[in-house]
Amino acid sequence: MAIWFSGVPLDTINEKGVQCANGNLGIELLEAGDDYLKGRMPVDARTRQPAGVLHGGASVLFAETLASWAAAHVVDPAQFHCVGQEINANHVRAVAEGWVYGIAKPVHLGRSSHVWEVRICNEQDKLVCISRVTMAVLAAPNRYY
Fold it and tell me: Is 123 a catalytic site residue?
């Protein structure tokens, strides 16, 4: 059984990301399975650190992007919205070029919080970064910022 409240409109999400950090870093959402959200991010001049490999901060931004979009589509948006509360990451392998792929899966989907695990792998499906993201589930605001 799928976890999504009413589906995950990948095209709409990707369009919303064009003019923000997601678009600037080349992040794209690719696939929503029954219990996961998958995306990719390039390893290029936008996402590398001065040493020439993927910047750990870019990996964290990618992980939070996937978990945030996933959490937003598990809840009823008329009643709730989700915000990042805590994130941690372990960087286990360097990547100098190509793409990294991330998959966000829920560990816990509660009434007031979600915990998501995000695994980021290289093109050979080797683990690059593993992250845990805690999302707070809040009452929907009356207005948007």
Answer: no
